[in-house]
Design a protein that fits this description.
This protein is 37% helix and 23% strand. It is elongated and about 70 Å long. It folds into 2 domains: 128 residues, no CATH class; 75 residues, no CATH class. The chain is of the alpha+beta class. It is built from 8 helices and 8 strands. Strand 6 and strand 7 form a beta hairpin.
Length: 214
Amino acid sequence: MPLSNLRTLRNDMCKNEKAVVVFRFHYNKLEYFVAVCLLTDEDSKKQEAKYALVRLCFIRGDDLNQYLDCYANSNGFSAGMTELRHFLGVAYQPDGIGWIRGFTHFFGGIIPTHIPNMNNHEQHIALHTICRHEGRDPNRIYRSYIFRNGKQDGQQKHRTEYNGQLASARFFSLYPKFKQDRTISFAFTDDPILEKSEDEILRNFERNERNMCD
């Protein structure tokens, strides 16, 4: 299966609470980034994601606002051949099936099997992708508070990998402290003036925890 590395990479992402990882590649003399994203509950409800392992976001290296979202499994992409060809700037191919097979094998060969080391630019792309996929304002990254998730229909709710990855970038001391407790989530504001220090956030959280126990 040409994209078999996706399964190994996805498993490593789940293990390390990374919702999005980014790596770059060159194709047709242009640079591209690809964001590999864990499926959310909303993704899993879509028909085109029925057999998907991950969501992929292909991004133009010279314009981060030019992107193509699709789903993928070990065999290939949900994106249509023509759609993918146009995005990659590839001219009409008389043997379209041969081209998509060739590109799929090429792409499969560059997929990492484990979370890649991302430079600052790639980290920025990952956080931007998280915000866009969650329908979150990209500016909503300033620390606000932490809270313990409750239960829904008798089942304990847990933070998402998307919330955990954004927290790891913004809550420098509190995320490591609560990393193993997935019942705790991190909240953000889009107003930098309202951002709170981690010490204040921890004091507020501990006070709320005591009040719940009283």
